[in-house]
């Protein structure tokens, strides 16, 4: 990813507004989305378009790694950002004003129960989302480069 490329923000109204505020304030407005629930900005490369795409996601920590959940509210399909990182796992992450490159990977079957519990503690609705879909909702580990 290069900093000179244009990044397309998530098209949904409130998410796009959230991203704009987050970027304009280096996360001072938007990092804490709800009390005790924090968000980061994730930029992936579109698997078909090749364009950079940015979205805001709730995150947790696992040691030095960041965790995000590809829930899409329990929809039957994975979110586009997850499909993008499967095609190209090099991503850009912004937490508050800090931006860094990370390598994204899906949590292994062995680590998933632990990292799922971490994320469900932060956002209990993840457990509800999992009951709405037949797919196993992935937990993504973002390993800083």
UniProtKB/TrEMBL annotation:
Catalytic activity: oxidized coenzyme F420-(gamma-L-Glu)(n) + a quinol + H(+) = reduced coenzyme F420-(gamma-L-Glu)(n) + a quinone
InterPro entries on file: F420H2_quin_Rdtase (IPR004378), Split_barrel_FMN-bd (IPR012349)
A Pfam family that the UniProt record links to this protein: F420H2_quin_red
Gene Ontology, cellular component aspect: plasma membrane
Gene3D superfamilies according to UniProt: Electron Transport, Fmn-binding Protein, Chain A
GO MF term set: coenzyme F420 binding; oxidoreductase activity
Superkingdom in the source lineage: Bacteria
Family of this protein: Belongs to the F420H(2)-dependent quinone reductase family.
PANTHER family: F420H(2)-DEPENDENT QUINONE REDUCTASE RV1261C
Identification of the protein by name: Deazaflavin-dependent oxidoreductase, nitroreductase family
Record organism: Micromonospora krabiensis
């Amino acid at each position: 990813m290069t900093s000179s490329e244009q990044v397309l923000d998530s098209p949904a109204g409130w998410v796009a507004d959230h991203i704009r505020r987050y970027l304009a304030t280096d996360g001072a407005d938007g990092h804490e989305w709800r009390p005790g629930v924090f968000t980061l900005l994730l930029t992936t490369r579109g698997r078909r378009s090749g364009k950079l795409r940015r979205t805001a996601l709730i995150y947790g920590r696992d040691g030095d790694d960041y965790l995000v959940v590809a829930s899409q509210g329990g929809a039957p399909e994975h979110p586009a950002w997850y499909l993008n990182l499967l095609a190209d796992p090099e991503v850009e992450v912004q937490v508050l004003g800090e931006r860094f490159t990370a390598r994204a990977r899906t949590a292994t079957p062995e680590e998933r129960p632990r990292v799922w519990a971490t994320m469900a503690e932060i956002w209990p609705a993840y457990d509800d989302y999992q009951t709405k879909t037949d797919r196993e909702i992935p937990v993504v580990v973002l390993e800083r480069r």
